[in-house]
Amino acid sequence: MTFETFLAEHRARLTAGLVATYGPEVGQEAAAEAVAYGWQHWDRLRSMDNPAGYLYRVGQTTARGQLRPTGFLPQDPSPGLPDFEPGLAPALEALSEQQRACVVLVHALGWSKADAARLLDIDVSTLRTHVNRGLDRLRTSLKVEPHVQ
Amino acid sequence: MSSDLLAELEAYGATLADQVDQPIRAADRSLTAGPGVVVDDGAATGLEPDPGVTVPLTMEASRSNRGLWLAAAALLLVVAGFGLGRLWPAGDGSIDSTGSPDDRTEAELDGTDEDGLPPDEGETTPVPPPDRPSTITAADGAVLALADNPDTVADRPPRADGVEPTLEELAIPALDDQGDVLIRGVLDELVRLEVFGSETREEVADRLLTDDLTITTAYDPSAQALAEAAIAELHPEGDRPDEVALLTIDNRTGAIVAVASSSPTSVLIDGLRQPGSAFKPIVLATLFEQGYHPLDMVSADGPCQFAYPDQDQLGAYTVDGAPRGIQSVRAVTLSSNNCAFVRLGQAAGLNQVATMAEDLGVTTLPDDAGQLLSLPLGVTVVNGAELAGAYATFANGGVHRTPWLVAEVTDRDGTVLYRRDGPAATGRQVLSAETAALVAAMLEENVVGGTGARASLPDGRAVAGKTGTTSGFIDAWFVGFTPSYTTVAWLGDPESTTEPIELPGWNSFGGGLPTAIWGRYNEQLHQGIARESFPATPDPFDGGGRLLEAEFEVEFDG
Fold first, then answer.
1. Is the N or the C terminus of chain B less surrounded, counting Cβ atoms within 10 Å?
2. Pairing of strands B214-217, B76-79
3. What number is the ipTM of this complex?
């Protein structure tokens, strides 16, 4: 597979994972660096089982190099988008990286648990744990009662 | 499940997706490359990337992207790789990701979070950071600096004429405030050595960007990558105030071969922190140089109190402790006993301890250090690189060299503006080889059986070192060396000297995280390097037995 083909299929999800974890600004930059790294090292990566997962971690290393991400609150959203709870962005920021990545990928960006787990290179049961604990912590921060179905 | 929270998250996701040019929501994705998928990294021609080609790092459309590239800048920082006798191939920067969860050390399995469950660390294998090219231009440093801190760019008021600022205009403040750790270290050294006279850091940074200079450094990108990988692997994730940093010196030359930090900057290069117990080996060096012996004895009882004759009891210096009887210098080193070391400092003479510290390259002692009863406990601030340089002196038989990054500076015509040679390169014998060997032996034992146990390396090679923790868990150090390299590891909050470190899953004593990171890094660093022992010491059991006493000890009146 050429790197271009790989990118066509995986670039969006790689960006999604890093944006989910680090916010739109840092996440996109980290994704760009990961893409550049992938381009440089495609020879080695192409034979891996999960190169997208590897590049996600490369992006993480880049993103972590920043002391304080500029935040998870997107700037200047377009008009016409639904409003969301203002406390949500700081509450997401307070989660651990893994919890945030899992919660945002699954519940904000609508990914299947299988796809999210694959990108983050963890198994689905671990992902489920992170999602549940992340949601619990968000509820506590936002003082939301669980709605029993 | 709360339907309100899920609806909020969905709305959040819509706003995120609006900010990102990739289709990041599952509902928006297409699985085939369509016209909406932008591949702008040079691979659009469909050709396979050539591994030999240097790839410009492109930054995606974000506020920090103003056409910043790794320019073919006029300035080159050439990496010379000054490691003598190093057997492993340099420059690749990659490490074997062979670690599996089962291989994790006990240190990493320590601790649970507040729910009683294992901490949220991923089970993934460690990943090296993107390779640094082996030729680093100042423009690279500027781009790295700007990528680390896009706020520097964003906060700039727009120019009245609407013209985009140049790379130089953006880079110089960025280099000065948030520059890559290496670039900052180089700048600091050039200023300190007055290579360009009395020019300030900003003026030197400006010169680097505009003149056609070649700067040869001792920086080793593969060591650097290993250091960064160890930090990334073991330092907890997330937005946190603490920094963990590593700095490595080649013992034979005094060269700084790597500086890595979990922050964009590092306290180790230009900060000053209290070393705590990491100062104690300097007391040992003073004692042994005077002819004292590891089996000389000293009281390890505590609590203890000390006062100068003209001081009243209110001014007495008190140190906590427990009744532990009379022990050998060796034993109190292994337990890092504070009362014992305050006594030892006086037995050696505090003026002599201060002089020894200065001989070992510590330049930050206050003028009254020779009167400071607390000096042996590391209350005076030190620079991390200097501390590493002191320990490197124990490692190499007693020759001190000021730690350095810059080997040579030449201009466009090849005229040498600066070259490191002469006495600075040769170093100065500040301890006898026997003293150095004795200190190394004490600290080697400290790794085997003392507080430095997490630093022992799996291949069993000789490792020596000392932990240091400042009271209130403000700083945690591990300074350790093999015959080849000395590395200092530091953990703390670079912006606070009052807030204790808090790490879920780790205790913050110096024996914890810094030591574990030191061990992980040095395990990789020494692959391919022949195992060496420290020089033999005189028979450790031949001698000793004298009781060392503290001149200024007074009755503890609790």
1. C
2. parallel
3. 0.86
